[in-house]
Every structure is written in C-alpha cells, then in structure tokens.
C-alpha cells in the first residue's frame, strides 16, 4: 500500500505522521512545492520509527510527482488555510487552482489512485476535482463529515461527562456553518443523547460544532490540523484495509437526498474501491430542510468556479 500526501503543511504533515503511526502502509510520500520542507518533515518522522516501532517508510519530495507513482491513495492537502474572520469559501480562488494542478500532476503518475480532497472549500474542491479529472465518483472523496462528527462527539462527551469512545454521532451537509449535526441519531452507548442533555444544551453543542473550525482558527490564527490530519489518515485506513466502515464523507450526489450534481457530506461505506455505497438516512422533514439549505451553500460556492 502506497499513499501520497500532497502538501506538507500542518494538515498534510500530520496526516503523514498519523499514517505512519497507524503502521499499515508500506510507503507514505509527502510532497510539497516548498523546497526541502517535505524532506525535512519526513526525515524527522523517520527518526521516530525505532522509538515508536514503525515500519512505514515516509519519503519527502519537493514537487517531484514521479516519486508518487502508483500510489493507491492520494490525499490533497495543498492550499491556503483560513485566517481568523475568513470563511472557507473565501479560499476558493486560490485553492481551486492549486487543487486542479496538483490533481492533474498526481493522476498522471497514479492513474488508478483514490483521491481524498482535504483543501477548502472542500465540498466545492471535491466537485472541481471530480469534474476536472472525469474520474468516477467512488474515487474522489472529500474530507469533512468525519471531522465535524469528531468535533460533535467531543462536545457531547464533554457535556455528558463520559468517554468520547462511548459517543456515536454524525454530521452531514456542506463543510460550513450550515452543516447539520444529527442530534436525533446521536447516542451514548446506544441511548439517545436527548436522554442526558437538555434541548438548550444540545442546541449550544450543535452551534459549537458548526463553528468548530472557526473557533480553533480564532485561537491559532490559522486553521486546525491535528483532527483534520487524523481524519485524513482514518479515511485512508478504511480504504486501504477495506473495512467497509460507514463514515461521513463528501460524495458527489446523484439523486441521493434529493440532490444532484453537487458534492456534500453524507454517510458512505468506505472500502478498497473508495465509496462503496452512499447510505441514505431516514431524515425527518426538518433535517431534510436543513440538509438542503446546507447543500445550497455549497452550490453557491460551486457557482463561483465559473468566474475564476
Ligand atoms: N503543490 C504542493 N504543495 C503546495 C502547493 C502546490 N501547488 N501550493 C501550496 N502547497 C503547500 C504549501 O507549501 C504548504 O506547505 O500546501 C501546504 C499548506 O500547508 P499550511 O499552509 O500549513 O495549511 P494547512 O493548515 O495544512 O491547510 C491546508 O487543508 O484543512 C485545509 O483549509 C485548509 O485549505 C487548507 C488545507
């Protein structure tokens, strides 16, 4: 199993590091446009290998796509992160060009790869990557729902006062402030969280989840990387190990949830072919309405692609 991570910044380097820690890939190639950065970070990671019992070989390269040849999975994290006060959609101009050029170069050397799109605005850039590459939808997958779900689970566990591993919760929709935390389906050891938390507290948690990325950006002056990096590695693991886990990921919708020709976060089954199946949840009218509103925000950002 060979995995390439494009962009050796905060998110890309963290993803490569978590991939190495997970120890299932033979090789992880980290590529960046900045001279020496990927090489330096890869070398640093390799020098933890003895201490942490890692067998994965992490290789860093400066813009040399031949080293990514025959990757099974390619995660694209290259691009600008948000600064405080920016929305993800504000990044569409600069990041659409980066993702497009990176995807073209990577695809030339790895025509069979499954692509994970991480750069923001991720729903729109996943859509762009699909349209541009003409790959089938099961091979181009955006990362956001699992990240937003992890944030949601953290806030729920914190409020209930239980281990996060006992919480199971999901977020769907576009990766923006209109994302939809599915509180009705969230559970603590199978028991609905509504049994433990008041409607007011749950509303507060939903909001904290929706602005979860912005909260971190305000604190750091740049966007988050530990959770986005870990989620990227987790998605790659589900594909590599063919686990068929159901994870919320960005997929091109073709009638599912009443939406067509747009990418948004929905539960999917991940396996060796990428998206093996899109799971349609039994949403109630309110949830459907929130989902469609959220998807409309992704459509608005997609429309900006035409003027770039
Ligand atoms: N090819 C390869 N690497 C590139 C390119 C390119 N064409 N353009 C930019 N990069 C690299 C930069 O050199 C930098 O090292 O992408 C890296 C981005 O790293 P950071 O600035 O640290 O950004 P990061 O926090 O990792 O976020 C990257 O992921 O979560 C999203 O919104 C976030 O769009 C952002 C992306």
Q: Your description of this structure?
A:
The chain has a 6-stranded parallel beta sheet, with helices on both faces. Helix content is 42%, strand content 21%. The two termini are 36 Å apart. Helix 4 links the parallel strand 4 and strand 5. It has 10 helices and 14 strands. It has 308 residues and is an alpha/beta fold. Bound molecules: adenosine-5-diphosphoribose. Adenosine-5-diphosphoribose is lined by residues 6-12, 32-34, 37, 77-82, 91, 95, 98, 101-102, 118-120, 222-223, 225, 228. Adenosine-5-diphosphoribose (APR) binds next to helix 1 and helix 4.
How does the SSE layout of this entry go?
Blueprint: E1 2-6, H1 10-22, E2 27-32, H2 37-46, H3 49-52, E3 57-62, E4 73-76, H4 92-109, E5 114-117, H5 122-133, E6 140-142, H6 145-160, E7 167-168, E8 171-172, E9 180-181, E10 187-188, E11 191-192, H7 199-210, H8 212-220, H9 226-240, E12 245-254, E13 260-271, E14 274-278, H10 285-304
Parallel strand pairs: 1-2, 1-4, 2-3, 4-5, 5-6
Antiparallel strand pairs: 7-10, 8-9, 10-11, 12-13, 13-14
Helix pairs in contact: 1-2, 1-9, 4-5, 5-10, 6-7
Residues 6-12, 32-34, 37, 77-82, 91, 95, 98, 101-102, 118-120, 222-223, 225, 228 line the site of adenosine-5-diphosphoribose.
């Amino acid at each position: 199993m060979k995995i390439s991570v494009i962009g050796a910044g905060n998110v890309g380097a963290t993803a490569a590091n978590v991939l190495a820690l997970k120890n299932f890939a033979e090789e992880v190639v980290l590529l960046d446009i900045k001279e020496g950065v990927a090489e330096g970070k890869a070398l640093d990671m390799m020098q933890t290998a003895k201490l942490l019992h890692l067998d994965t070989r992490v290789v860093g390269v400066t813009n040399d796509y031949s080293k990514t040849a025959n990757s099974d999975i390619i995660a694209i994290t290259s691009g600008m992160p948000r600064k405080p006060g920016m929305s993800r959609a504000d990044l569409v101009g600069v990041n659409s060009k980066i993702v497009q050029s990176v995807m073209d170069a990577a695809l030339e050397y790895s025509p069979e790869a499954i692509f994970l799109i991480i750069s923001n605005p991720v729903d729109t850039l996943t859509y762009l990557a699909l349209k541009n590459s003409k790959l089938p939808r099961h091979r181009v997958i955006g990362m956001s729902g699992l990240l937003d779900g992890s944030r949601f689970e953290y806030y729920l566990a914190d409020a209930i006062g239980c281990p996060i591993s006992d919480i199971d919760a999901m977020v769907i929709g576009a990766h923006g402030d209109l994302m939809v935390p599915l509180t009705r389906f969230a559970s603590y050891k199978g028991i609905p969280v509504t049994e433990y938390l008041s409607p007011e507290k749950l509303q507060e948690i939903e909001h904290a989840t929706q602005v979860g990325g912005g909260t971190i950006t305000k604190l750091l002056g740049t966007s988050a990387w530990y959770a986005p990096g870990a989620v990227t590695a987790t998605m790659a693991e589900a594909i590599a190990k063919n686990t068929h886990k159901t994870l919320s990921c960005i997929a091109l919708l073709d009638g599912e949830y009443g939406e067509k020709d747009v990418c948004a976060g929905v539960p999917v089954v991940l396996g060796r072919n990428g998206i093996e199946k899109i799971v349609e949840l039994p949403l109630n009218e309110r949830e459907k309405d929130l989902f469609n509103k959220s998807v409309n925000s992704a459509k608005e950002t997609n429309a900006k692609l035409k003027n770039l």
